[in-house]
Amino acid sequence: MDRVAHEPAITNGGRTIAVIGTPLSTYHPNENRDLQERIPKEFLLISQILLLRDAAQAGPQICSSSLNET
Questions:
Q1: DSSP H or E stretch at residue 11
Q2: Looking at the whole model, is its pTM more than 0.70?
Q3: Can you name the residues that pair with 29 across neighbouring β-strands?
Q4: 40, 44, 46, 51 alpha-carbon torsion, rounded to 10°
């Protein structure tokens, strides 16, 4: 996350969109965690990593075999 770009935009009343190259649950660098938590609440945060590709975010999955039960 590029704090140097996002903070001035926010401070000056602008808008910002952050695109990160890590899963949404990963903070890199860790010192930008506060900013990474703030941006999706007030603006937009996009991860380049597919949601279900990250095992920590996968959660319960629907088994396709259970869909075929009668």
A1: helix 3-11
A2: no
A3: none
A4: 50
- Interval 13-65: pLDDT, tens: 999 999 998 888 889 899 999 999 999 999 999 998 876 655 555 555 444 44
CB atoms within 10 A of CB 20: 19
Q: Count Cβ neighbours within 10 Å for each residue of 33-68 and write b for 16 or more, e otherwise.
A: eebbebbeeeeebebeeeeeeeeeeeeeeeeeeeee
**Cα 23 from Cα 7, distance rounded (Å):** 21
Is residue 22 within 8 Å of 49, Cβ to Cβ? yes
Dihedral of the CA atoms 30, 10, 42, 39 (nearest 10)? -20
